[in-house]
Amino acid sequence: xxxxxxxxxxxxxxxxxxxxxxxxxxxxxxxxxxxxxxxxxxxxxxxxxxxxxxxxxxxxxxxxxxxxxxxxxxxxxxxxxxxxxxxxxxxxxxxxxxxxxxxxxxxxxxxxxxxxxxxxxxxxxxxxxxxxxxxxxxxxxxxxxxxxxxxxxxxxxxxxxxxxxxxxxxxxxxxx
Length: 176
Description:
Layout: E1 2-4, E2 13-16, E3 24-25, E4 28-35, E5 40-46, E6 52-53, E7 55-58, H1 65-77, E8 82-97, E9 102-115, E10 131-136, H2 138-147, H3 155-170
Parallel strand pairs: 2-8, 3-9, 4-9
Antiparallel strand pairs: 1-2, 4-5, 4-7, 5-6, 5-10, 8-9
Helix pairs in contact: 2-3
């Protein structure tokens, strides 16, 4: 992991991934969604390769980052009854976006989202988004990402998940 120094309240933002040719810049973020009732995390399971993915995406210019990430969580998962939202971390990341078939570079912001309930509304997946909502443990997510991470595309997600899981425990929630 390299560090890129960006002035942001005098904190450093870690940099992850492998720099690639023709990277497209698209800043955005992700939500790590935890359900205290089941003590599991909500993620999307890609239908083609089984990759577990965070609900994430780019943020529109008129949105602040938290609004944009929560919009993505609702659109992609249908989950919408949020009890607690906290910014967990930021990272500068290089990755291959398999859904859009493009190399990306982004400043990504991650939010921990703790649900009040797991009630869902209809999802609004884009044509390239081929995944379904599943409930899994943090260990299952990490195992999935580590097994598919030969190109370092999920290093930032691993960093975010570890920070979010630690925060879930700090807040007093039990996990599986």
